[in-house]
Amino acid sequence: METASPSVKGPLGAGWTAPRSGALSTTTAEVLAWGVLLAAVTASRILVAPDVLYDWDSANYALAITDFDVYEHQPHPPGNPVFMAMLWAFRWLPGGPTAPFLAVNALLGAGTLLLLGAMVRRDGGRVLPWVVALLFAVCPPFWYQGAVASAYVAECFTSVLVAATALGVARRRVPLWLAGVLFALALGIRPNSVLSMGPLALLGVWMGRASRAEVARGLAAFVAVTLLWVILEAHPLTSRVASLALLLAVALVAGCSDVYCETGDTAIIDTTDTAYQGARRRAPDAGWRLRVVRPGQDLSSPKSEYGE
Predict the structure, then answer these.
(1) What are the Cα distances from residue 289, in Å, to 72, 236, 248?
(2) Pick from 294, 291, 290, 269: which is nearest to 279 by CA?
(3) pLDDT in tens, the chain (308 residues)
(4) Residue 171 and residue 80 in contact, taking contact as beta carbons nearer than 8 Å
(5) Among candidate residues 171, 175, 163, 227, the one with its CA nearest the CA of residue 201
(6) Which of 19, 23, 40, 67 sits at 20 to 30 Å (Cα–Cα) from 205?
């Protein structure tokens, strides 16, 4: 039985911020329909999944499952620590290095569809959310990325999570402290999607007409949870901050195209690429070594300039 939602006065009027329908009971048929859909979606990915890693980033993610070090590009910055924790939790699965990715993709893919359905259900009834989820499930990019070892299903999930949370805040169904926790967790899964969805999150706060105390609690929760994973992944970086600063200074002063840093087993850092892409190589000795590469110079050339 449907019950009326309390009217909430928002900047765009009560009709948007207060949904037309309130609590909607869940039927057995609805649960079965969603179960069949999610099972079919998961099976459709697993049955066509390749048994090799998808790309360079996938290899770095796979290495990070057993040896997490953002500076070593295991994985590439900023590290996606919550996503990595999920991969680590499924490391026991048989099936090779792609198995944890498939498990996490299945979990986050199901979460994406359920969140989409939840956003539609309160105003669209029981059938429309299922149809929306079905149409999204067969979207080619969502299907393809769910079958390979990548982080893009995670990015999709965090985008939908931010949108659903913003909608809940606007309707005053989600308290801001909980929204702060969810935003911080999403930031740890896939930061770039949270940044791109940031304006929508702020719109939800504005439309919900939260008090200053509520906003303060939400910000405090967001900062506290974010600091947890920032501190966890900071340890491998702290001992190398000075060396990285030195590398960047050399690049600016020498006017080089690239500056590389090698130590033991370290990723090469290309200062001309903001994503820090580049091949990995193993230096023959321990300790820091800077190599300045002039524009157009062959990386294998013995004439490269070194500074100890």
Answers:
(1) 15, 18, 14
(2) 269
(3) 444 444 444 444 445 455 454 567 888 899 999 999 999 999 999 999 988 888 888 888 998 888 887 777 888 877 888 899 999 999 999 988 999 999 999 999 999 999 999 999 888 889 999 999 999 999 999 999 999 999 999 999 999 999 999 999 999 999 999 999 999 999 889 888 777 888 999 999 999 988 899 999 999 999 888 887 777 666 544 434 444 444 455 445 444 444 444 433 333 333 333 333 333 333 333 333 344 444 444 545 443 333 33
(4) no
(5) 163
(6) 23
